[in-house]
Amino acid sequence: MAHVAAQRARPVTGMALYLLSGALGWFVSPVLGVIGIVVMIAYHALTSEGVRRGRPRRR
Questions:
Q1: CA 7, CA 40: separation in Å to the nearest integer?
Q2: pLDDT tens for residues 13-45?
Q3: DSSP per residue over the chain, as a string?
Q4: Which CA distances in Å does 31 have to 1, 14, 17, 43, 51?
């Protein structure tokens, strides 16, 4: 259960990036919206194994 609580920020950040990208694409420029979507995809790819705090443990 602690793992779920520690990873709560990841989906919330992803939703915020998605909404920001949509708003940028709609109100400012579609190119900025696409760039925001690419950033969101990169964020999820980089954090796919979870967000860790501190030094990673060796196995």
A1: 16
A2: 888 989 999 999 999 999 999 999 999 899 888
A3: -HHHHHTTHHHHHHHHHHHHHHHIIIII-HHHHHHHHHHHHHHHHHTTT----SSPPP-
A4: 40, 19, 15, 18, 29
Name every residue whose Cβ is closer than 8 Å to that of residue 25 and which is 6 or more positions away in sequence: 32, 33, 34, 36
Q: Is this structure's pTM higher than 0.85?
A: no
Give the tokens for residue 12: 């919330």
* Residue 53 identity: R
